[in-house]
Structures are given as C-alpha cells and as structure tokens.
Amino acid sequence: MAREFSTVGVVGLGTMGAGIVEVFARNGIDVVAVEISAPALERGRATLKGSTDRAVAKGKLAEADRDALHERVHFAVGLDALHSVDLVIEAVPEHLDLKQRIFAELDRVCRPETILATNTSSLSVTEISVATSRPNQVIGIHFFNPAPVMKLVEVVRTVVTAPEVVADVEALCARLGKVDVTINDRAGFIANALLFGYLNHAVGMFESHYATREDIDAAMKLGCGLPMGPLALMDLIGLDTAYEILDTMYRRGGRDRRHAPVPLLKQMVTAGLLGRKSGRGFYTYERPGSPVVVPDEATPLATDAALADGARAIAKVGVVGSGTMATGIIEVFAKAGYEVVSVTRGMEKSAKVCEAVKTSLNKGVVRGKLAEADRDAALGRISWSATLDHLADVDLVVEAVVEELSVKKALFASLDEICKPGVVLATTTSSLPVIDVAMATQRPADVVGLHFFNPAPVMPLVEVVRTIRTSPEATATARAVCAALGKTGVVCGDRSGFIVNALLFPYLNDAVKMLEASYSTADDIDHAMKLGCGYPMGPFELLDVVGLDVSLAIQRELYLELREPGFAPAPLLEHLVTAGYLGRKTRRGFRDHSHR
Ligand SMILES: NC(=O)c1ccc[n+]([C@@H]2O[C@H](COP(=O)([O-])OP(=O)(O)OC[C@H]3O[C@@H](n4cnc5c(N)ncnc54)[C@H](O)[C@@H]3O)[C@@H](O)[C@H]2O)c1
Known about the structure:
With 596 residues, the chain is of the alpha/beta class. It is 45% helix and 14% strand. Strands 3-2-1-4-5-6-7-8 form an eight-stranded mixed sheet, with helices on both faces. Strands 13-12-11-14-15-16-17-18 form an eight-stranded mixed sheet, sandwiched between helices. A two-stranded antiparallel sheet has the order 9-10. The radius of gyration is 27 Å and the shape is elongated. It starts with 6 loop residues before the first strand and ends in an 18-residue tail after the last helix. The mean pLDDT is 96. The structure holds nicotinamide-adenine-dinucleotide (NAD). Nicotinamide-adenine-dinucleotide is lined by residues 11-17, 34-36, 40, 91-94, 102, 119-121, 142-143, 145, 237-238, 241, 245, 277.
C-alpha cells in the first residue's frame, strides 16, 4: 500500500513553488505554503491567485473549485509551520548552501517519517540529503515550468533513497495526473541536461549579433514546432535560475564549455533583468510576472513598408533543380503569384517536376485548401525549361541542386554570365558556406542563402543567410520575398547550421550520448522532452524521421566548423549509421519500424 499524503509543505513560492502549490491543491491535497518573509509570502499568494483566476477565465477551472483550492492552502512565514506535513517540497533558489541549510532545518522541524524532497534542477540531491539525519527519505521531485501545465515529473533517487520512498512518490505523481520518469542523481537529470546547452548556445547567438532575439525564437518555433523560442523560454525560467543551473551543470557535468554561462547572462542578472518575474529579460513584459510581451527599443518594425525598405521589386523567379526542395519551392512561388521559370537538366526531368507540382496542387484542391481556378492560375505561371538561358530576364534565382560545392559553384558562375544585373541569386544550401558560392560570381553582394524547410509548401520558416559580402538590399529583398510567400524569414549569419540546425542537432547528439551512457532509455528521454518541455517529438523519434545519416552529416559539419569538443558526434550514432540503421527510411534506426 502506497503511503497517503494528506498534507504537503512547499518551501519557496517563486516561479516554481507557487505552481507546485497549485498542483497539489488542485488535486485535493492540503498544502502548507512557506516563504521567507511576509512580502515574499504575499507575492506567492498573488501568483497563485493570478494563475487560478486565469484558469477560471479560460474556462479550465470552475469558480467553486478555485475557491475550494484556495481553502486547502495555508500560508505561513518560516519553516516551523511544517511540523506535521507528510511531505515537503523545497523550491528555493538554486544554491547548494541555502538548500542544505533548509534541509537541516526541515530535518529538525518535521516528523521523523516525513519525506523531504527538493525541486532542484541541477544540484546534487545526494549532497542536499546529507545535510539531514534521514538521507534515505530525501528525494528529488523535479517539476517543469509551468508546473500546473507540464505533465512530466523527474523523480530523482540517490544511492541511499529508500525504495519505498521512491514508490510512494511515484504513486503520488500518478495521483497528481503527472507522468514520472525515475532516474539517478546526475546534473540536469534528463530534460535540463539536454535543454540547457541549447539555451546557452541560443544566448550566445544573440550576444554575438548572429541573429535577433525575435528571429532566433521564431526559427526554433517555426522550424522545429517548439512551444516557445529559447530566449522567451529563458525569460520564463528566470535568468538568475538559468544562470545557476548552467553554472552548476558546468561544474558537475564534466566542465563542458557549452554549459559555461554566456557572459551576457551574468550581466543581465546583475542588472536585475531576470526575465518575466522582473518584467524584463530578453524581452520586455507588461509588468513583473506578466506573460504579455510589450514592444521595446529592440522590437523590429513589422510593417510591410519596413520589410520592403531597400528591397528590389521581384516579379519573375527562376528555380534551378529537380529534387524535392526545388519542386516544393516552384509550387510556393507560383501559388504566391510569381512568374516562375523552372530549369532542370533535361525535359524528362522537367516533365517529372511538373507532374509532382500538379499532384501537390491537386492535393490542395481535394483538401479544400486551394480553389481549382487558383491551381490552374498557379500552373499557368510556371514555364518549364532545360536551359539556364531562360533565366536571362528573371529578378531572383533560387538554386536547389545537389548539395555539392563544386556543382553549386559552377552553376553560380553560369548564372553570373546569364542573369541581368541587380538580380538576387539565392542558394538553398543547408550545410555549405554561402560565401563560397557567392565568390564563384562577380557579384557576391547579390548572393544570399534562402534555406527553405522540407516540405517547402508546408513549413512556415525560411532562413535568410547573409554573408559578409551580402548587400543590405539583397537581404531586404530576400526578407520581403519570404513575407510575400506567407513565410517568416529569419536573418542570420553564414555559419554552419544557420540557426535551426546549429541549435537542434547538438541537442539530438546529446540525447544519443545520454542513451549511450545508459543513464536512461530512449522512451523515457523522448517522454521527458515531450511532456517536460512540450516538444512535438522526442529526440529519438525525430532522429528516426530525419535520418541518422543526415543527422550525423550535419553534426560532423558543425563539429568541424566550430571545433567545439561537445559537438563531436556520438559514437553510437556513427555505429548505427555504419550498420545501415538510418531510421524510418530503412525501417530501423533507434527503433524498429518494420511492423508499422
Ligand atoms: N524556473 C524554472 O523553470 C524551474 C524549473 C524546475 C525547477 N526549478 C528549480 O526550482 C527551484 C526554485 O526556482 P525558481 O525558479 O522557482 O526560483 P525563484 O527565484 O522564482 O523563487 C524562489 C523563492 O524562494 C524563496 N526563498 C528564498 N529563501 C527562502 C527560505 N529560506 N525559505 C523560504 N523561501 C525562500 C524566495 O523568496 C523566492 O520566492 C530551484 O531549485 C530551481 O532550480 C526551476
């Protein structure tokens, strides 16, 4: 029989604590909610009220249930109020000495059988536990932000945590409607170990002006389907908390430089820019604690006029190539009203591409997303050619041929001879340096990267890559074209992986390393990222979809260009590729897909 928890204590009512109180009270459990001072207690009470009022306003909580919820919470200053609770969850700031002091005090105040839990994200639960006389009753219960919403709880057992304590806490998580994964005590556990290198990297991109905050966040939301971008997430977590987590992970997790907090973070924390809780972090909020972003001096002007500023007029577009990307891009431009000249290496290929575009447009008609007349108009705008000479009068060329530098360079040299002056020349490369392609022409200022995502007609994101020679007009033109296509164009520098792949693949590689180290299973890791961070797919699901060979190639490129030791491809990934386990396309990758 699992232990009954009728009263729990929560220590610290900040970002996490207030949410944890709500989780317990919502599930019929009495809570003693403790803070360090009366003003902090009031803040915690206000956070709980704000959150439950929002739930009522959204129709997710009945008014009577909200009132009953509040009646279950008893607020108090000081730990003495916790003398008769069954379980305590500590959620004070991420400092080992503070947590150890609180645990020593809890050990004195609480009954001998009370379980003492920490919500730490990165500190050693074991080190916290030895501050008490009952380390076997100390455990990590790591909730995710926002606690009432995110389904995952990481249950962290130390080498001395009693098995029945683990079982009791697992049963409690189920009662709270949460999904738990139980793991050993390692810095960052599953989710944060995979998340924080990525978040820190994104801050580094922002710090080095590689891309704007809006573009970094839009790239990850639209390119990967994440619920929020990394900088908005940092603001939600709290920059002080994020700094401490990174710092601890750096020191405990093998001094991986990717966890060494980017200097800007420390500066922002020192300046009091803590994220949502202080009203300002990477973004500015309506008021402290509010989730509503308001414009500030860094907010870009989103008007059409601003987008078109300096942009050249584009009416006719050439698309070179006959693969998946070229086919999708032809469709996207034609549907948006551009005249399109498709150039392939032969009329047979052109016929195939034409068929593929027709099939795709017809699907749109069948699904009711496209009128027949619009389909016919789109097809009518496309001309099919097997010679580059037909690009003499286009305003923009989008190259989507095979990913080989020599082929692309030769093509750009030809385009340079054929195209009229002032044309923007774009490459869709996902891994080659755009500047190499640009320098094959006499007009590098007119060359940009236009990195579409697959399938191009569906994916809302395009990375606009500017090299150190790209002119502001060419960049503005590319951005305006993306907007006219109904896509979000994000501008970034010419570095391996641009924004999305540079942030995504090291995280996937880290997941493989975690699996290889037998810290957890592929299922639990996938669960953790989906239920703890709201990712649409777990890393192993995504790797099997993308293809292990493709993932390995991208990771190798990143490693070679950035020379970051932490980017070295996981040996397990290399071995699976060598063994021919490439993912869904070979029916076996991290998982066996032969029966699906
Ligand atoms: N922020 C996140 O997204 C997140 C997610 C999961 C876990 N965590 C972990 O949760 C813990 C709390 O983080 P947070 O982001 O909620 O921090 P926070 O700074 O928002 O809140 C901490 C609260 O603890 C209170 N406090 C400080 N000393 C206290 C004491 N002696 N007694 C009682 N209360 C005290 C503070 O007044 C503050 O309200 C940390 O260990 C953190 O790593 C954070």
